Amino acid sequence: MTIFDAMTEGLIYNPSAKEIMDEQARCLAKLDVYNSMDRSDSEGRFNQLSSMFASFGEGSYIEIPFYANWAGAHVHVSRWVYANFNLTIVDDGPVWIGDHVMIGPDIKCDPSAQCRAEEEGGAVQQGSTDM
């Protein structure tokens, strides 16, 4: 089992491991690009989100700014999802957001059960997962 498997399966892992930090930095660079994009560039923003997320459905939209530990790399967004500004997702484990979900401003989605030096991931599901 790799350290990434442990993280996404909700097992205890070391979040400071080099392979974790390197991959997370690569993902967060994409998040920085997204958060600096022009708000009027809807097509560019959709394309950037599609490249960041595990899956990102038709008609879905996330307002800037958006925050996530892994820039959405472990998040599956279905169709016609709208998230208002300041959405924060702790996506150390898988997160599924189903069709036709509206997320208000300043929402935090955090599946972790506790904080400590080693972290424990987990999964979150919101709405239908018929993707």
Topology:
Elements: H1 3-8, E1 12-13, H2 18-35, H3 42-52, E2 55-56, E3 61-62, E4 66-68, E5 75-77, E6 82-83, E7 87-89, E8 95-97, E9 102-103, E10 108-109, E11 119-120, E12 124-126
Parallel strand pairs: 2-5, 3-6, 4-7, 5-8, 6-9, 7-10, 8-12
Antiparallel strand pairs: 1-11
Notes on the protein architecture:
The protein is of the alpha/beta class and 131 residues long. The protein has a single domain (3-126), classed as UDP N-Acetylglucosamine Acyltransferase, domain 1 (3 Solenoid), CATH 2.160.10. It is built from 3 helices and 12 strands; from the N terminus they run αβααβββββββββββ. It has helices at 3-8, 18-35, 42-52, and strands at 12-13, 55-56, 61-62, 66-68, 75-77, 82-83, 87-89, 95-97, 102-103, 108-109, 119-120, 124-126. α2 (18-35) packs antiparallel against α3. The longest helix is centred in the first third of the chain and has 18 residues, at 18-35.
Question: Keywords for this structure?
Answer:
single chain, 131 residues, alpha/beta, UDP N-Acetylglucosamine Acyltransferase, domain 1, 3-stranded parallel beta sheet, 3 helices, 22% strand
